[in-house]
Design goal:
about 350 residues; alpha+beta; 2 domains; 6-stranded antiparallel beta sheet; 3-stranded mixed beta sheet; 15 helices; about 45% helix; about 20% strand; elongated
Length: about 350
C-alpha cells in the first residue's frame, strides 16, 4: 500500500459529455456515419473532494454482537445484483483508502494482478460499481506532462448501502427470505429506500460547477482579437447588458486614488465587472498589469477595496484578477452564466 502524497494541483479533472449534437465522419471504405459530438468539462478538485457518496442510500448496520456485517452483506446480497467480481473489487478498492482519503489513482495495475484480470475486464467491473454508485471516476490531464491524459482518480464510497426496495425485488425468493431475516436481526431501525441511486445523479452533481474546456478554435479567436486590439471591445460587448460594468467611473476613481506609476503600469487599460450573484469583482488587466499584480496581490486588493466599496456600495466582497486572454476564454467557454441575472434586471 502506497503512502504517496497526492498532489491534486498537478492535474486537470474532467468528464467527457455529449453535447446533443451530431457530426458526419468518414469511416473505413469511404462511407460516412453520424457521430455524437462531445465536450470536455473540467471539474474543480474541491468539488470531487467534497462529493458525498454516502448520502445516497442508507448504510448497512455495521456491527452487531461483534460480527462485521459489511462484507457479508456485499457478498450475500449485492453480489446477486452486481455479480461477485465487482463486489470483491469494491472491497479491494477500500483497502487503498485511508481515514483522510477516500480515493485512489495509481493502483489499477496492482489490482489487475491481484484479481488476475485484464484491464478491459477491470474497467467493466469498475463501470458496474459506478453504475450502482459505489465509486465515481473522474479523468485527469497531467499538467506536468504536456496535459496528457493519465489514470483517473477513483472516489470510493466508504459505507455499504442497503439494497433499495426495487433491488430487493430482483433477488430470488430464497435470497429475499434471507434478507428479511437479516433486516429483522440487524436492521430493525433501518429503512430501504424505494429506488436505487445511479451514477447519473452523482455526475450531474459534479457537473453543476464544471466548465467547458477551451478548444483550439477558442484560443485562436482570442489570440486574433488581442492582436487586433479588440480585446476591450470584445469584453465590453459581451457584458454590455450588465449595469455593473462601470468602466468610466472606475477609471475616474483610479485617476484620483491610485499613484501614477501603478495607474500607468497596471490599470490604464483595465476593465472591472461586479458579479452580484457571487459578490465578486473581476478585474481584467493587460499581461503586464497581471504579472505585476501577481507579485503584489494583497497590496492591490488593499488599494482597490475602498474604490469598489464606493463604486458599488458593497462590503465583504471578493476580488479576482484576470489577464485579457484568460477572461476572454472564460467568456468563450460560457462561464458567464452567472451574468445572466442581469439580462432580466429591469
Amino acid at each position: 500500500m502506497s503512502e504517496v502524497e497526492y498532489k491534486h494541483d498537478e492535474f486537470i479533472y474532467f468528464v467527457e459529455e455529449p453535447t446533443g449534437e451530431f457530426e458526419e465522419v468518414v469511416v473505413k471504405g469511404g462511407k460516412t456515419r453520424s457521430r455524437q459530438k462531445t465536450e470536455i468539462r473540467e471539474i474543480p478538485y474541491e468539488d470531487i473532494d467534497s462529493l458525498d457518496l454516502e448520502k445516497r442510500g442508507e448504510q448497512v448496520p455495521f456491527v452487531h454482537k461483534h460480527v462485521v456485517n459489511t462484507p457479508l452483506y456485499m457478498l450475500y446480497y449485492w453480489s446477486s445484483i452486481m455479480g461477485a467480481e465487482p463486489c470483491w473489487l469494491y472491497l479491494e478498492l477500500l483497502t487503498y483508502c485511508r481515514e483522510d482519503r477516500d480515493f485512489l489513482w495509481d493502483k489499477l495495475k496492482e489490482i489487475e494482478e491481484k484479481m488476475k484480470c485484464t484491464r478491459p475486464t477491470l474497467n467493466k467491473h469498475l463501470q458496474t460499481l459506478e453504475d450502482y454508485n459505489f465509486i465515481i471516476r473522474v479523468r485527469r490531464f497531467n499538467k506536468k506532462n504536456s496535459n496528457s491524459e493519465t489514470t483517473p482518480i477513483i472516489k470510493v464510497r466508504q459505507s455499504v448501502p442497503l439494497l433499495s426496495k426495487d433491488q430487493y425485488r430482483m433477488l430470488s425468493k430464497r435470497n429475499q427470505e434471507q434478507h428479511d431475516k437479516f433486516m429483522e436481526k440487524y436492521g430493525k431501525h433501518s429503512n430501504m429506500e424505494e429506488f436505487h441511486y445511479d451514477a447519473k445523479a452523482t455526475k450531474e452533481e459534479l457537473l453543476k460547477s464544471s466548465t467547458v474546456r477551451a478548444t483550439s478554435k477558442m484560443h485562436k479567436k482570442v489570440d486574433n482579437l488581442i492582436k487586433e486590439d479588440k480585446a476591450i471591445t470584445y469584453i465590453l460587448t459581451k457584458l454590455s447588458f450588465a449595469e455593473e460594468v462601470k468602466q468610466s467611473e472606475f477609471h475616474e476613481l483610479v485617476e484620483s486614488r491610485i499613484s501614477k506609476p501603478a495607474r500607468e503600469q497596471i490599470y490604464e487599460e483595465s476593465v472591472v465587472f461586479y458579479d452580484e450573484s457571487k459578490n465578486r469583482i473581476d478585474v481584467i488587466l493587460t499581461d503586464k498589469g497581471k504579472s505585476i499584480v501577481d507579485f503584489s496581490i494583497e497590496q492591490q486588493i488593499k488599494n482597490l477595496t475602498p474604490l469598489f466599496e464606493e463604486l458599488y456600495d458593497i462590503a465583504d466582497f471578493e476580488i479576482r484578477f484576470y489577464s485579457y486572454e484568460d477572461y476572454m476564454l472564460k467568456l468563450e467557454r460560457g462561464l458567464w452564466a452567472s451574468f445572466f441575472y442581469y439580462i432580466n434586471t429591469p
